[in-house]
Design brief:
alpha+beta, disordered N terminus
Length: 167
């Protein structure tokens, strides 16, 4: 499969940005679907209540749409009323990196995947107090959902005990 030049440039820009270099959004190919990995590399945001996983209640893992690394679990997902998938925590804090984000006249904390450097969303301090008070507000386009029934088949079988505890 040949990767179009625009996609290659965007992936390179995302990699440079993750390494601390400035990235440009001038290379964005607007013909790419919102579910494309390039969508998350340019720090875009899914529309609230009109994205794939905001209202998903099935048990399973949410993995990085770019490289398949497990990031979040449905066991930590909750309905924040915001229209985006919200989680109390990542599967492992080392899986994500957080950066100050002062864009759009707001002060917030951006969340990126550690491995791919992709923009995942933002973390806020208005989550459930019983679980630490954090709300990881994550773009569906940055994720791919793997239902529990497919974990073994897709190579995520080591996470099955996480869901057996719920029974």
């Amino acid at each position: 499969m040949r990767i179009p030049l625009t996609v290659t440039l965007l992936i390179l820009a995302a990699t440079a940005h993750a390494a601390g270099s400035a990235t440009t959004t001038a290379m964005v190919d607007t013909s790419l679907p919102a579910t494309s990995p390039t969508f998350v590399s340019v720090h875009d945001t899914d529309p609230p209540f009109k994205n794939k996983y905001w209202n998903n209640h099935e048990a399973g893992l949410y993995v990085d749409a770019i490289n398949g690394k497990p990031l979040f679990s449905s066991t930590d997902k909750f309905d924040s009323g915001t229209g985006w998938p919200s989680f109390t925590k990542p599967l492992d804090p080392a899986l994500v990196k957080m950066f100050s984000d002062e864009s759009y006249g707001m002060s917030r904390t951006e969340v990126r995947s550690s491995a791919a450097g992709a923009h995942l969303g933002h973390v806020f301090n208005d989550g459930p107090a019983a679980t630490g008070g954090q709300r990881f507000c994550i773009n569906s386009s940055a994720l791919r959902f793997v239902p529990v029934k497919d974990l073994e088949k897709e190579g995520y079988g080591s996470f099955l005990p996480l869901f057996q505890k719920q029974k």
